[in-house]
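does this look right to u?? S-adenosylmethionine version
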Amino acid sequence: MAKTEKRTTKKTHFGEQTVLLAEKQGLVNDVFHSVARRYDLMNDLMSGGLHRAWKDALVTAVNPPKSERDFALLDLAGGTGDVAFRVVDAGGLGTRVTVCDINTAMLDVGRDRAVARGYEAVVSFEQGNAEQLPYPDRRFDCVTIAFGIRNVPRIEPALSEAYRVLKIGGRFLCLEFSAVDVPGLDRLYEFYSFKAIPRIGEVVTGDREAYQYLVESIRKFPRPKAFAGMMERAGFRRVTFRQLTGGIVALHSGWKL
Ligand SMILES: C[S@@+](CC[C@H](N)C(=O)[O-])C[C@H]1O[C@@H](n2cnc3c(N)ncnc32)[C@H](O)[C@@H]1O
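got this back:
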């Protein structure tokens, strides 16, 4: 009984709030249900288009084969398919992407976008929880997650699952907000994140709180070195990270060897 009690009373962060670990996923799901239809527009507005360059850096690291060779990518927390479409554009005829996300509203937007692009045959949208993936061991050549991991309540099981579904020799790449370490830029970034982004979110999506959560969750996410340690403990080897745009985001990489 003590064990069950411990599990059910375990706390975590939801932005600045402390909530029960078991409650966090429901709160996160509400955020993305609320903003799904405006999510892509908001990404452009909030980042001044920079998210495109960061995702391009991720896709360059994925480096899908240009040939007809089969290449299966799993894009975790892939939402509306942004990373998936970029990988398909960069890859050859054998490139296939599975977008796995817990949120049906985000997946619905992604499916509509795939139809508009004529990508239904090469990108599939599947509902699943990153903490417990509905895929067999060693199924994918590469696993990516962009701006998703900080929303997943239990990061360790999600990293273990990413490791499990990768083939031997496969690569895991994670793009996530990081800690700005350029003097001057840090204060500007802080001001922009906490004052401007929730306001833009309110005007565009009608949900200020959703964007308040999103910026606060960045602060609570482990620093890149700490996250690299978590990746190593999940089994990844040759773990590295690279900070982009003065540390606004970090691109983490690890291999299953
Ligand atoms: C900030 S969005 C990122 C979407 C996309 N990767 C991108 O870069 O545009 C975060 C996504 O994580 C998803 N998510 C949150 N918790 C999840 C979980 N436990 N398993 C899978 N996806 C999850 C949300 O539904 C949301 O679509």
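The CA atoms of residues 15 and 217 lie 4 Å apart. idk if thats expected tbh
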